[in-house]
Amino acid sequence: MGENKIILGDNEIKLGESEIKLVSNEIVSDDEINVTNSEDSFEASLDTEAKLFVLLDSYYKITLTSYNSMAATGSGSRHCFICNTEVEPDVFKQHIDHHDHKNNMQKYKFLDKYKNNLIRQSRLTYHCAICNVIVYRSDLPAHLECNPHKQLMKQNSAITKKQRKNQMKAGLALYKVETQNEVIYKKMKEKQIIFHLRAIITD
Ligand SMILES: [Zn+2]
Ligand SMILES: [Zn+2]
Questions:
Q1: Are strands 70-72 and 51-55 parallel, antiparallel or unpaired?
Q2: Ligand nearest to C-alpha 71
Q3: What are the φ and ψ backbone dihedral angles of 133, each rounded to 5 degrees?
Q4: CA of 104 relative to ligand 1 center, distance in Å
Q5: Residue 183 binned pLDDT confidence (cut-offs 50, 70, 90)
Q6: 200 alpha carbon to ligand 2 midpoint, in Å?
Q7: Which ligand lies nearest to the CA atom of residue 67 in the structure?
């Protein structure tokens, strides 16, 4: 942290001028957190779709797993985008609480450029925390314009202040977060991946 230039082989990374601060992820809630002694039962019952609010310029309601950039793999496990590792369901909570993951949460903050879309970056891939999906840089503009993403953004903006207050009273946490600059990898080539958008079953 604090360095503005990182050299990775030939690829120069520009972090801009803004200093990266280590003060995000502060949980703000008027409600006291109930501490339970039954650690085991809590871990077993971690609700991966539990919601929370993120505050940037505006408020965004997303899931706990999405906030932690843990995208579904389709097999029940999650791919943690910021740690670049696969996480099994029985250790979701341990993973979220692990200091390596917490460090990565500081390292991969939402990008200032896309701050109203909750986008994190890891080299040439990006994670959208609104949708909890991972996309390549070249696909990011299309993703931000796609209907599922826009629908979720619309639903978010439809939440009234009163509704949000009530939901926070009912236990939803509010995470005040900071942003960081996008890193431009000038010399790195993106892999060409062909996405099949529709299954072909007639052949
Ligand atoms: Zn992680
Ligand atoms: Zn999205």
A1: unpaired
A2: 1
A3: -130, 160
A4: 7
A5: very high
A6: 25
A7: 1
Q: Which of the four pLDDT bands, split at 50, 70 and 90, describes residue 120? A: very high
Ligand closest in space to the Cα of 78? 1
Rounded to the nearest whole angstrom, what is the distance from the C-alpha of residue 83 to the centroid of ligand 1? Answer: 4
Ligand nearest to the CA of 117: 2
List all residues 6 or more positions away from 2 whose beta carbon is below 8 Å from its beta carbon: 19, 20
Query: Residue 180: CB partners within 8 Å, gap ≥ 6?
Result: 15, 18, 20, 109, 110, 111, 112
Which pair of tokens denotes residue 115?
């701050």
| Average of per-residue pLDDT across 93-113 | 96
Q: From ligand 2's centre to the CA of 94, what distance in Å?
A: 26
Q: Which ligand is nearest to the CA of 79?
A: 1
Alpha carbon distance 88, 200 (integer Å) = 31
Structure tokens at 163: 């509704």
Residues 6+ apart with CB under 8 A from 25: 102, 105, 106, 175, 177
Q: 70 C-alpha vs ligand 2 centroid, how far in Å?
A: 14
Q: Phi first, then psi: what are they for 31, rounded to 5°?
A: -85, 145
Local structure of residue 36 (DSSP, 8 states):
-
Interstrand relation of 133-136 and 11-14 (parallel, antiparallel or unpaired): unpaired
Interatomic CA distance for residues 117 and 112, integer angstroms: 10
CA triple 187-82-76, angle to 5 deg: 125
160: CA distance to ligand 1 center in Å?
A: 32
